[in-house]
Structures are given as C-alpha cells and as structure tokens.
Amino acid sequence: MTPTPAPAPDAPAKTFRPHRDDVLLAVLGVLLGLLLWSLGIYSTGKRHFFPAWAALVPLLVLGPLELLRRTAPNVTLAVGILGVIADQFTVGNLGTVLIFTDLMYAAAVYGKPAMARRLPASTGLITITITIASMAWLRTPQALMTGVLTGIVSFGPALTGATLRNHREAAVAARLRAEQTALLAEMDRSQAVVAERARMARELHDMVANHLSAIAIHSTAALSIDSPTTSREALGVIRENSVQGLAEMRRLIGLLRDAGAEQEAVATPSLHGLDTLLGQARVNGAASGLDFVLLDDRPSGEPLPAPVELAAYRIVQESLTNALKHAAPGTVRVRVSHDGAEGGMLTVRVDSPYRDRPGPRAPGSGAGLIGMRERTELLGGEFSAGRAGSVWLVRADLPAEEKAVAG
Q: Which helix (H) or strand (E) holds 96?
C-alpha cells in the first residue's frame, strides 16, 4: 500500500502592498476634496438633490480606489464611473472629479490591452454625444462647456494613458529587438570562431601530419632494425621531413598573423604541386614497399577556383599520409579528373593496397578522414572512404565552381 504523502506546508500568504505613489495620490486626493468641501467650493452649484455632506460619500469611496489603480484597473474604473455620476447629484467635489480622471488614466495604462485600445474611442464618442445632447437641450453657448469638461475628465486621461502605454510597449519591443540582434550577433561571432578554429585545425593537420607520419615510421624502423645502412637512410628521411615540416609550420604561422602591406603573400597549395607531393611520398614510402602513381586526366584550360584546388590538394595529401601509415606494399594510385564542362565536377580518387602490412605503423586518430569530409562538404561536394575489395578507396567529388567558403 502506497503511503499517502504528507501535505505540503501552506505557502505564506502574499500581502497586498500598494505602490507608494498610489498611496500618495489617494491621500492627496482625499485631503484636497475635504479642503474644498470645508471651504464651500463646489463643482455643481445649485444642481443638487442631497445635503452638502453627501458630496463626501463619492470622495471617500473613490479615494481609496487609488490604492488599487495598478492591480485592479477594471474594478476601479467601473466604481469610479458610478462615483463621478453620483457626485453630479450632490453639490459636487472637484477632488472626486480629479480622482476619477486619474482612475481613467490608470485603466488605460495598466488595464488589459483591449481596454487601452477601446477607452479613447469610447470616451471620445461619449464626449461628442454629451456635447450634442447638451447643445440640443439647453440651446445656449454655455452648453458647449459641458462637452469640453466631459472631454477633459474622460477623453483626455484615456488618450494620454493609451499614448503612454503605446510608447512603453514600443520601447520594450525596441529593447527586445536590440537584445535579439545582440544575441544573433554573438551567435554569428561564435559560429565564425568555431569555423575558423576548424579551418586552422584542418590546415595544421594536413600540413604537418604527412611529415610527422614519415618521421614516426622511419624512426621506428631505425630503432627496430639494427642496420647502419637502414638507420642512415631513415635519419635522412627524418631530417628531410623535419625541415619540410618546420617550413610548413612557419607558413601556417604566417597565415595566422595579420599580413602587413609590405609582407609577401603566402602561396596557396594547388593541384600543380601534386607531382612534388607524390615525389616526396615515394621517398617516404620506399622503405615500406610503396610506390605512388599520379594520373591527371584534367583538360588543359583555365584553372579551377582556389578553394577547390586547395581542397583537392589537401585531400590527396591526407590520403597519401594515410597510405604511408596503413597501406600494404604495392602501388598507390592518385587519379584527378575533370569533365571540363562549365559547372562540372572535379573528381579526386586515391586507391591504396589494403591488406596486412608488415613492419612499423604510425598511429592514426581519425581526424584526417573528418577533415577531408569537412573540406568536401564545405564546397557542396560528396566524399566517401572505405574498403573496396583489396584496396582502400578515397573519393571526393568537388564542384568546379566555388559554392561555399573552403578552409
């Protein structure tokens, strides 16, 4: 049997605390009304049906309503209308009328949006109706003052409150738009920082990983094979890759720095450097029984956009690095083709022997495949990598036209 949970302790009751400005308005309104009544200053003159003290009843009813002008504007306005109407049947008190005008103003400012929209129109219509009725009934120029006073007491406060409310809402909306704009700007900045970091990571990986992989393979071979000739050859390859890797690092640092007007622009790798890239791979892979062949089927003509050539170069470079790490002895074939049509595709394909490989291997992290895929997708192309029989196939189809910013 599930025990019945103990009842939660009662939450402390919220105490009603009117705004101090509302308290001040209520006190001043009542005191003003009492002062005018004590001095015998009335607002309706001889048009009354009750004793003079009866004018204090609407005053003392409407005065405390000022304490509720913010929290219950609908109720205060309804009672205020009845109170000001009742005041017209007494000698009248200007304090009661002034309190009513403030209640009308508060209803437009603090009431529901629909009320704020309706009050100026309804009080304006009432003002016009009373003016016309007074002129038709009294038929004197002084009757126009009845309509003017009605407009001052009802239409003026309602219009003022609605205008103030519109300005406040516009200010709030403007502030929200500013905050949203700032938030979107911050999101754009964060995305730009993330994209730039990813680009820097790809550049660093692609430029240095090839040399470090060769260094790791040949240093492992030098340590594992006790042969002076092998050690000398390995040290030569290690030195060459160390020098080239250092040059690539300097190039990357140059890219990261703000280039001045007098600094020489850093050359961007392109497909024209594939022969040199494969020549270096042949030197690094000779000890592992690897050979590298380049098949360039591109038609002669105008060069491709720089981002496309850079992406293709980096994909070939990373594929050769992976071949040095993992490929079995054999021939690694690099094929680059372009259909030559406007808006066609540049295809980069690298086939590496895939089987058990004797000898030392360099560890891999998988970041190379991620970087190649990112480069391809940034240009709107398609990338695939995986085993196809006895070969490991890497293929990237890149649009010959630059569709995105590559890094």
A: helix 94-110
